[in-house]
Design a protein that fits this description.
Blueprint: E1 5-14, E2 17-23, E3 26-27, E4 32-36, H1 43-50, E5 58-63, E6 66-67, H2 72-77, E7 79-82, H3 94-104, H4 109-122, H5 138-150, E8 156-160, H6 168-184, E9 188-193, H7 196-202, E10 205-210, E11 213-218, H8 220-225, E12 230-236, H9 242-252, E13 257-261, E14 264-269, H10 272-285, E15 290-296, H11 300-308, H12 322-331
Parallel strand pairs: 4-9, 4-10, 7-8, 8-9
Antiparallel strand pairs: 1-2, 1-3, 1-5, 5-6, 10-11, 12-14, 12-15, 13-14
Helix pairs in contact: 3-4, 4-5
Length: about 325
């Protein structure tokens, strides 16, 4: 089997909303693959199709060599799922939640009990196994959900925003668990996130998704190297001068990429430290006041800005985000 997951032109429409549009990706066995994009970009809809929760409107997809439409039951036997919203029964203990999941997958008693101890140990919850889930912290709850997703030895694990709403320290702990299970369990992982540092830190490859379409796909380093240099950020006193300053930099040829956001101009240059005086001189000669200037190495946010024209956290909740509410309503 060449790919753990393979899609060809997969599409999903909800009435007049195209949530996922003609997406083609391939994920190798054992890969930790990231879907990076803002809320409403289509990440959750895509993995909901791959996990057989909703059917595609068009295109095709195979997970562990099973067609998501024709062989949905076989797909489900080979995948684990950690949802964006918790689906644990908080009136049961951690162990009881895992036992219930094992029974649903028809695991025999001996195997079930052994596996419960294995996954509890993996996420370091053995000492809280017999505690009611209602008393768990957010990080403990997330870890238990990951353990549950691994109970039946899935070949592919989908993690939908696994660290959403968690504090930075807990998020870092979850990152380590994800890396461990990918390495030690050999599980293929598809991770959706809008945290750039999460995708950068964890994923072997990242697909940047926006408005339901893949706009870039490569390793984190290769994506950042696409920009070809350092990023200089200029904050202007008067935003009305931004279009004129962008044109000045484009005509001068000092920057390989010129973009804008709010009151800022972003230019990508080689040898940024030495270019700053020239960049400021061009603005001064044009009579354009600069409030501040900063320099940094390219980030995934810069990559997203380059391909979409805006920063990932600036995405407003729009039409596509309604899909999330539609899906949640259907599950209730």
């Amino acid at each position: 089997m060449l790919y753990a997951i393979e899609t060809e032109g997969i599409t999903k429409k909800f009435d007049d909303i195209t949530a996922v549009n003609n997406v083609s990706i391939s994920v190798k066995p054992g890969e930790l693959f990231g879907l990076l994009g803002p809320n409403g970009a289509g990440k959750t809809t895509l993995i909901n199709m791959l996990s057989t929760m909703i059917e595609p409107t068009g295109g095709s997809a195979r997970v562990w060599d099973f067609d998501v439409k024709k062989d949905a039951s076989h797909v489900r036997q080979n995948i684990g799922m950690v949802f964006q919203d918790t689906t644990l029964d908080d009136r049961l203990t951690g162990r009881e939640n895992l036992d219930l999941h094992g029974r649903l997958y028809d695991m025999d008693s001996k195997h079930r009990k052994k596996r419960i101890e294995e996954v509890l140990s993996l996420v370091e919850l053995s000492d809280r196994a017999n505690t009611i889930v209602k008393t768990y912290s957010g990080g403990m709850t997330r870890r238990l959900e990951i353990a549950r997703g691994l109970m039946h030895h899935p070949h592919v694990l989908f993690l939908d925003e696994p660290t959403l709403g968690l504090d930075p320290q807990t998020r870092n702990h979850i990152w380590e668990y994800i890396k461990i299970l990918n390495k030690e369990e050999g599980v293929t992982i598809v991770l959706t996130t809008h945290y750039m540092e999460e995708a950068d830190h964890l994923c072997h490859r990242i697909a940047i998704i926006d408005h339901g379409e893949i706009v870039a796909l490569d390793t984190p380093e290769a994506l950042k190297n696409m920009l070809g240099g350092d990023v200089i950020t200029l904050e202007l006193e008067n935003p009305d001068n931004i279009p004129r300053l962008c044109e000045i930099y484009k005509k001068d040829g000092c920057a390989s990429i010129v973009s804008r956001k709010n009151n800022d101009v972003f230019i990508t240059v080689r040898d940024g430290e030495r270019q700053i005086p020239h960049v400021l001189e061009l603005a001064s000669d044009a009579g354009i006041p600069i409030r501040s200037v900063s320099l940094h190495k390219p980030t995934l946010d810069d990559v997203f800005l380059h391909f979409t024209g805006r920063a990932i956290r600036d995405k407003e909740a729009g039409e596509t985000e309604r899909v999330g509410y539609i899906l949640r309503a259907r599950r209730k």
